[in-house]
Amino acid sequence: MYPKVKPALARAWRDLQTVQFGVTPAHAVVLGPVDTATGALIDRIDGTRGMDLLRAEASGMGLPDGRADDVVRTLAGAGLLDDATAGGPRAQALRGHPETLERLAPDLGSLSLVHREPGGDLRGMAARRAIRVRVRGSGRVGAVIAAVLAGAGVGRVEVLDGGRAEAADVAPGGLDGASVGRLRAESAGSLVRGSAPGRVPRAGEDEGAEPGLALVVVAPRDGLQAWAPDPDDAADWVAAGIPHLYAGVLEGTGLVGPLVLPGATACAGCMERDRVEGDAAWPRMLVQWRSAHRRRAGAACDLGLSTAVAGLASAHALAFLDGQLPASTGARWEAALPALHWESTPIPPHPDCPCGAGGPPEADRGEPAGRAMTGCVEAVGRRSPS
Prior knowledge:
The protein is an alpha/beta fold.
């Protein structure tokens, strides 16, 4: 074991005997009492020394026998300790690609805060590399999401879209000017490959067989399809238990969510039924809006807002792929120009929807409501509880 205090959290002395690791409340940890000699020992827990050397140095500082082991156990219990040799075989294989790890260093730092056990950052990144995600749409939102997911280490990012790229699709971090006139799918594929840190694993290299889809991100160029998704388009995902996340911009309003966990949270069919019950004119208007969007050449998709939506959707997608349930699970986050106040709206399951999320209690059903969540978490290698 070569223990290392996680470098992602800034360290400061609150007083002569209390150390705070981290600045922001979400992840900060306070330890005490810590004397000066123990503080000096903590400075040396940097991944370059094994336990035998740390014990010898602790003894040389006048610390009592067993103090080095006590400190390491305390740091580990607080989620502050990493290990330069931990994480398992796939993490060790990643250590053999230093250029890739250098690109992913900020992402690994973030993962070390979520996966608190030693080696959890590399274990989490190795799990990402084995994941397959599909992005539906390559416009200002979808292409940026695809690039972010690939750049964050997701091993297989597919982008589905038709036609040829237009000037309005171009966005920083997404399709560039050279993509205009090219097939959207071709341009998006080049973007994903160029965004990935290191060579993208080919199908079957890491896990033997092509992995199933862990997530579909629905980010259509037509924001109406994200605001009011067609249940028929999602029917196959619901039937197959594939989680899917909606994101888009419509008329100056950005939206992220809901993240649909089939059989557990509301789906597109639930949303449609709820809207029809709340507004009898909804079906009539929706037909007109969809027809108008097919004819209309332009769209109100502010570049700053679309980039914010893509970033938030990517962060929610990564949180889910890393084994967590983001705030978009069963809810939609919206922000409208010009104030851009992000607000969350719960999306409840509808009891009459055939997806089953709003059906009777789990005990009365053959399929547990949480099956989709548990299955996906297992597929991406969720960490053991700390």
